[in-house]
Design goal:
With 748 residues, the protein is α+β, with helices and mostly antiparallel strands. It contains 35 helices and 22 strands. The strands form seven sheets. It has a four-stranded antiparallel sheet. A four-stranded antiparallel sheet has the order 17-20-19-18, with no helix packed on it. Strands 3-5-4 form a three-stranded antiparallel sheet, with no helix packed on it. Helix 7 (130-146) crosses helix 9, helix 12 (243-253) crosses helix 14 (273-287) and helix 15 runs antiparallel to helix 16. It comes from Gimesia fumaroli. One of its GO terms (biological process) is DNA-templated transcription initiation.
Length: 748
């Protein structure tokens, strides 16, 4: 069976068979009459008919050689449309198809048994694409050419037999492939657009595949290239937008950062904000037309860009510039605004948004990274490197950006065998490090990872934290309760040991002399330690260690404590000014009376509950300064506090709430009475009448004499050592009687 040959696009007549081919056929083992009939010149159609007329007297080997000679001369993919006039006579199972193609054919045999097979029909078969169609054509033709026993009247019966098959549209197939290769893949040879042949394919199929790859697509694409041309389709879609919609798309929709505001665009067009919003909605609807089937080549290019960039990529990386250049390199500079085209394709691919110099296709990807890392950490809090890489790959972040992405998030620390979640204040991070390394660490070792350089303040905060133990003079720390370790309190321990050596009590002068000489500590420091609640001394200068029966006498009169005031619900609050130390997480000395309200007494280390987590309180027996409160940085961060602001800590038993007073708001208040009320905890005070009421509550004034109100306020503030606040009390513009009349019976 010989393929019938036609000129391109199905025109006739059929071409002449070259004389050299006729001579070669004449020397084959063919009948003498066959040679004579061919003569010196004949057409391929005539040759085809002659072969069929003498088919019974031509050997199968001779027939195969004739076909091979014709195939070598005629480029089948340029001229030949395969037409099988009779059943092939071979079951599909015996043909050298790939598994994918064979399964697709067997699942829809009716599509492959028609007299004239249309490529649009077989391309609609599931899992049967361009690659399978080309393979199908190659296998059929190769099977015809290499068949050794082809009989004109073969009657092989099978449901899976290709019978009366016609491939008259091979050039139509080539036109589609070529248009796609030029329009979307921007190639000069089909081999640049097609995948490599598989090694398991028969050799003749791989040879045919290589032949296909050598085709120049521009010879076949024709006008069909517009169907796959991304520049043509983008231009076509953008013509649907008028100048206002196009400007809104450029300035507000297809942008990664700093989109124009509704007001700015409204002023430019001379329309209202609401009208701009309506036009924006219309522009988005028009741009979403790119998802219609007609514009799928544009979407495929956007998908390609998304695969290259991933879901998170550094905006200024050369990889991004290269990918964007490739995405628009076939756009003409004179016809297109390439910067906008880049932005448009980025929008279709994501849309991408700029976040701290990163282009993100998903604004929640940082949070997703943190959640997945925590979820997949082991019992030590470690996320192994392999697991981390799998998570980031799954989130669509290319491997070259893994390390820098984690650095940008800032929530994880790179350790020996992976990453650990490393968030919170200095104390939180110190505990994370101690848990991971499971060994004593010095302050300096911890600060190498934490990043703070204030060793002294950090060391004191670690000492005060109830969740940590200092275990030696070298200031090494472990988690409280770690087996095999005991808490060490420094010079205090040396004093205790010396008192024990002296029989349980010792002279102060002896302790000062020996401790200062042996350990090089200043005498004033030793005297300061001897005045802590740890020790009891008598009038003779003899000191001993305090036992459980010895009462600790501490002044806890909160009414005389500076910066402590009553609130509306008769609970107390403590005012603290926001400074640099407080902002960076340092603790703060806590008034002893206020500490006791929170349930912290001498010798205690406790944690109180707040809506921002727990906060440590400490009042050690060895403390020379009294009670202290741990880091308030999380609270300040929540309120957005700045230098000079005030924070009010409101106390209830084992529970703490907070109020925030901005310096800017305080400074903008003209009334000294309102300023005073704010500084006493009434942060929302609005009028002088209200201020007098709040001041009276804060200072717990119950004097029946209305005229004595201001004098009493000054007196109470002076007793607290707050004379500067007392100076704010001035007689208001209204008379006392008028003000008291407004606030009713508050002072009765």
């Amino acid at each position: 069976m010989i393929p019938k040959v036609v000129q391109p696009w199905g025109h006739s007549p059929t071409p002449l068979v070259p004389r050299a081919i006729i001579q070669k056929i004449g020397h084959l083992e063919a009948p003498h009459t066959f040679k004579n009939i061919l003569g010196e010149q004949t057409t391929l159609s005539n040759l085809d008919n002659t072969v069929w007329d003498y088919i019974d007297s031509i050997s199968s080997d001779c027939l195969s050689e004739i076909v091979e000679l014709l195939k070598q001369h005629f480029n089948k993919f340029k001229y030949v449309a395969i037409y099988l006039g009779e059943p092939l006579g071979q079951p599909i199972e015996t043909l050298p198809f790939s598994t994918r193609t064979r399964n697709a054919i067997l699942s829809h045999p009716e599509r492959f048994s028609a007299q004239n097979i249309r490529f649009n029909d077989i391309l609609s078969v599931p899992s049967f694409g361009m690659r399978s169609a080309i393979e199908f054509a190659c296998v059929i033709e190769a099977s015809v050419a290499n068949s050794k026993t082809i009989h004109k009247n073969s009657q092989h019966q099978s449901n899976a037999v290709i019978s009366n098959t016609a491939f008259s549209k091979i050039e139509s197939l080539l036109q589609i492939i070529s248009a796609w290769a030029i329009g979307e893949r921007k190639v000069k040879l089909l081999s640049e657009a097609l995948p490599d042949p598989l090694l398991e394919w028969p050799e003749e199929i791989r040879t045919l595949w290589d032949d296909i790859g050598s085709i120049h697509p521009q010879d076949f694409a024709g006008d069909l290239v517009k169907k796959y041309s991304v520049p043509f389709l983008v231009s076509k879609a953008l013509t649907l937008l008028d100048h206002r919609l196009l400007e809104i798309a450029k300035k507000r929709i297809c942008v990664v950062s700093q989109a124009a505001t509704l007001e700015e665009l409204g002023e430019k067009f001379g329309i209202s904000r609401e009208r701009v919003r309506q036009l924006e909605k219309s522009a988005i609807a028009q741009l979403e037309r790119f998802h219609n089937k007609e514009f799928l080549p544009v979407i495929r290019r956007a998908i390609t860009l998304r695969k290259l960039l991933g879901n998170a990529v550094l905006a200024d990386h050369g990889h991004v510039k290269t990918a964007l250049y490739r995405a628009v390199e076939d756009f003409d500079d004179e016809s297109f605004d390439k910067q906008f085209v880049k932005a448009l394709i980025l929008w279709l691919a994501g849309p991408y948004q700029l976040w701290h110099q990163w282009l993100l296709a998903d604004k929640n990807i940082a949070l997703q990274t943190t959640e997945l890392f925590i979820e997949n950490s082991d019992n030590r809090g470690v996320i192994p490197y392999d697991t981390a890489s799998e998570i980031l790959d799954g989130l669509g972040i290319n491997q070259e950006y893994h390390k820098r992405w984690l650095e940008k998030i800032g929530s994880f620390l790179n350790v020996d065998d992976g990453y650990i979640y490393f968030q919170g204040g200095i104390l939180d991070k110190a505990k994370i490090l101690l848990k991971y390394y499971d060994k004593p660490m010095t302050v300096e070792e911890m600060l190498d990872s934490i990043g703070s350089d204030s060793i002294r303040s950090v060391r004191q905060r670690l000492i005060d934290d109830p969740g940590l133990w200092r275990i030696n003079k070298q200031n090494e720390f472990v988690l409280a309760g770690t087996e095999g370790y005991f808490e060490y309190s420094g010079i205090i321990d040396e004093i205790i040991q010396e008192i024990a050596l002296c029989g349980g009590q010792a002279k102060i002068s002896h302790l000062v002399e020996k401790i200062s000489r042996v350990y090089g500590v200043k005498e004033s420091s030793i005297l300061s330690y001897l005045n802590t609640p740890m020790f009891v001394k008598n009038e003779s200068g003899i000191i001993r260690i305090r036992d459980s029966e010895s009462e600790v006498k501490v002044s806890t009169d909160i009414t005389k404590t500076a910066a402590c005031y009553l609130t509306d619900n008769r609970t107390w609050c403590w005012r603290v000014k926001v400074d640099k130390d407080l902002l960076r997480g340092s603790g703060r000395l806590l008034p002893n009376a206020f500490a006791q309200l929170l349930g912290c007494n001498v010798g205690d280390k406790i944690e109180v509950i707040t809506e921002f987590g727990t906060i440590a309180l400490s009042w050690q027996l060895t403390s020379t300064t009294g009670a202290s409160i741990g880091s308030l940085r999380q609270v300040l961060h929540h309120f957005g506090a700045n230098l000079g602001d005030y924070l009010f800590v409101k106390a209830t038993t084992n529970k703490v709430n907070f109020l925030h007073l901005e310096k800017m708001r305080l400074d903008s208040t003209n009334s000294n009475l309102i300023r005073l009320a704010m500084l006493l905890g009434a942060v929302d005070c609005r009028s002088e009448v209200e201020a007098i009421s709040k001041i009276a509550i804060a200072l717990d004034l119950r004097n029946d004499s209305k005229e004595a109100l201001f004098l009493e306020s000054k007196k109470v503030l002076a007793s607290k050592g707050e004379s500067e606040l007392a100076d704010l009390i001035q007689k208001p513009k209204l008379s006392i009687d008028e003000i008291i009349g407004n606030i009713g019976c508050l002072f009765k």
